Amino acid sequence: MVFTSRQPPGLLWPDYLRKPHPSTDYIQKKYLSNTFARTLERTNVLGDDDEYGHTGCVNALAWAEDGNLLLTAGDDTTVRLWRMDPTADSESDYPFVCRSVIKTGHRANIFNVAMLPHFRPDVCGLISNQVTCAGDKQIRVFDAAAALDIQDGVETEFSARELSSRVIRCHKGRVKKLCTEDSPDVFLSLSEDGTVRQHDLRMRHNCREDDCPASLVEMKDSDGDPVELSNISLSCLTPYQFIVVGESPCGYLFDRRQLRRVMEHEWGMVPRTGEVTTCVRRFARPQPPVERREKRRQDHISGCRMSDTNGHEVPYMKDNIYLFSTLDDPVSNDDMAIRGSTVVGPNLLKDSRSPSSTSSRQLRALSTTQCSPDEPSMTDGAGEIRIAEDEGGERPSSDDEEAELDFLFASNFGNEWQYSGVPIVHPRQTYAGHRSRDTVKDVNFLGPFDEYVVSGSDDGNWFVWQKDSGKLHGIYEGDSSVVNVVEGHPSLPLVAVSGIDATVKLFSPAPGGASAFSRMHRAKEIMESNAKHKPVVRVPLAQLFVHAARMQLFGGEGVDGDEESAVSGSEPSCPTQ
What we know:
By secondary structure, the chain is of the alpha+beta class. The protein contains ten helices and 35 strands. Among the domains are: 40-206 and 497-516, Methylamine Dehydrogenase, Chain H, CATH 2.130.10; 355-412 and 537-569, no CATH class. It comes from Ephemerocybe angulata.
């Protein structure tokens, strides 16, 4: 038999041989994904409350060296390097032990720690750079090669001087986050001074002489004051894109390919609004028109993370967790008007009533609130009005009542007008059930395909949701008080969790499916309890009258956005954040 085709016929070439076979890497990831579908159990605790481990809250976790190393840092201003040691006296399947402790020299809590990828050759050998940032406004860089070489079973301490530390003082506020890319020398930093900076360790400069390179991002409110930023995330697939969140109802996507270096700023001239950087997208949730304006005070966004597997999905956290995509189409202006989004331009916030009547109504409402003898007192000893929601949900309010409070809260988000023309993307999924009010928390992906979304909670638990469906997948006890950080291992079914406790907890799939630390059997009770903890907004009476007077003086065209005069939350804040 003679075949004219070069392809053997089907009878001689079975279908299963003609189909492409999955790679070994894909098979391993698929197996790892299946393990995360099971219930998790706490398998190890790194540190104790006495002599071993950290002595304060653990604010930062980072896996390094492909997961062979776990970096931890926190209030005690030290960085601990944990390695898996099979010879350790431990019954855990993951016997991580600390062999190296770095005394960083920071004078305030460490907020983030990172190991720059790859070793960099130097005249003295190979250098492995480790970076920390803290509340003392400093970034410190260490050559951690010596600390990584510890092989014996004795815990060794290293001072900053021993590891050739380098101090970077470019920021004027607390430095909250670091972002690494595929470089041993380049990383990004984010600060409460409203800036994002790119650092290249190969380029030396003197911070004390104000010789710092220009910042990539500089966010300011309508009064020119810095907007506090809290988190940044870099896309590993498209590293020119990063998202920034903070004291704003929006997340902001920047593209470094479009970042413009403002020469006027370097010459000492004040750049015009919009010229400092280029924002290409905003991410914000829609709000119904009936939603009360005081809820805007909750719009501080604490966590964000860009997906490592597809590079375009972004969850961020405020009242709930929302999943966005940089590939989704922006919302049209008509849709925004219909849905009543909070993310609107300043012209849409202005009331159609006359300025004089608006100010009169505001003053009349304030006088009634302060002096009415028939109502129970809503002020405390500091002369503040307490605005709270009942446990049943949102109390009814008229459009007039909302408009009277607009002038209070518009100033809090003056930075929104800086990028008012940037397209807005709405979320594709929402995740609820946790509580995030007392501390700054991270949100993260879990699984080899980023198939789960995870976050800590104020109730001491950490939550797992299925990314696509939004369904709650797991609740686990992770801290005696609050869980702030959840980091999954890059290649093993292992999750590290930390918070207010001085210890780090490790979770892995439970043998037999039973877990002593799973709280899914109480899921309804926990979620209902978290939903009842509504924040209380405190409004200083004096500031109410000052703002109302300004409204009348300026004809209702705007209010002063001084951060100190803005409404301040009454919730207790974590001392570490």
